[in-house]
């Protein structure tokens, strides 16, 4: 089976697509035009040999979800609001990345660990303690996703998430890159970040189990130190599962992640598919030329002259 390296993320009124050498984000502006920003992936995790090592390369997935993802999200917010002189990066973007990273780690890793620490007196074994901690962590994650999915603006982002999945599924199936053709494909995908995060939370149950320190600070520190390892193992599982989807056991193991995507995707509109296709085509075109440089361009909205009927 051919291994694909394309992935993406929904942003505000747009989609970010990433290949092996570069990324592109396409955003629908208030005018109806689609603004496309593309640039090479220059971080060491993408360009250095160690960035391809098993386990270590899982950090790239985390970087996409946090660093690159947050920058594209802020860029899309500016474009969708019609801001002028939009920059793809800056101190505000990086500050937001740090705050978001601290929030995510604190809420989904440290807080559940702290809660269970005070219940350890009633839990007889380290494995059971880790299992309860993991259940609390997963429940908080699912609850958080379900809660934010009730907001109207987030529902549009989730629709763009569905457009991203449909576009990648269509491309991997060799379909024509048109909204009508892409629309026929699923809004769920094995390599989705939602599935990745769920897998990370499940794997953390096993990895964290031996580290049942009586002191709270050591317990929390162990979780922080082990997050990269957990992410690396989760990424290797995602890659393996994508190559062996026909295996019955693999289908059973990835089923919860695919089911969870029902909370983070919506059926997209045609205009959303146009944006998603534009983002992927920008990446594909640059990689075909083997020269990925930072550039930005605008795809003008299609306009049709409205003819008035002849008076009777």
How is this structure best described in words?
The chain is of the alpha+beta class. The chain has one domain. It is built from ten helices and five strands. Strands 1-2-3-4-5 form a five-stranded antiparallel beta sheet. α2 crosses α8, α4 packs antiparallel against α7 and α7 crosses α9. The C terminus is likely disordered.
Strand segment count: 5
Structural class: alpha+beta
Strand order of the largest sheet: 1-2-3-4-5
Rg result: 21 Å
The helix-strand sequence is EEEEHHHHHHHHHHE
Which percent range fits the helix content?
55-70%
Terminal Cα separation, in Å?
Answer: 64 Å
Gross morphology is: globular
Number of helices: 10
Mean pLDDT: 87
Low-confidence stretches: 303-312
Question: Could you give the topology of this structure?
Answer:
Elements: E1 7-11, E2 14-18, E3 22-28, E4 34-40, H1 44-47, H2 58-80, H3 91-117, H4 126-148, H5 152-172, H6 179-182, H7 193-208, H8 216-243, H9 248-264, H10 270-289, E5 295-299
Antiparallel strand pairs: 1-2, 2-3, 3-4, 4-5
